[in-house]
Design brief:
two-stranded parallel sheet; 7 helices; mainly alpha; 114 residues
């Protein structure tokens, strides 16, 4: 998210950033809004764009790593997905980046310890 904000800053002077209740460590005032996608059209639009982009990326990753089933679950923590990660581990920088500070990563690390 910070990378996206930095890219926007190259074109627009930002006064503040709306966030869907997610804290962001950046030097711009942040307005985290709980359930922001139901209260702000810009947050809702950003959420749709982010999910579509993530899905497209995961369809491509699935072509190389079909054992993970990304095209089916899009990275959500289904039982099969977590079992597959437990068996094969995280693959490459992509998943480590997607899962940084994410509930899925926390769940996986708990599974890994069992």
């Amino acid at each position: 998210m910070i990378k996206a904000i930095r890219e926007v800053q190259k074109q627009v002077k930002l006064e503040y950033v709306l966030s869907d209740a997610m804290p962001i460590d950046i030097d711009i005032p942040i307005m985290p809004i709980i359930k922001g996608d139901t209260k702000s059209m810009s947050i809702a639009a950003a959420n749709v764009i982010a999910k579509v982009t993530r899905n497209r990326i995961l369809y491509e990753v699935d072509k190389k790593h079909s054992e993970f089933g990304f095209k089916n679950h899009k990275g959500y923590p289904t039982k099969k997905h977590l079992e597959t990660i437990n068996k094969y581990g995280l693959i490459g920088w992509l998943l480590k980046n997607l899962w940084t500070n994410h509930e899925l990563y926390k769940r996986w690390t708990l599974l890994e310890r069992k």
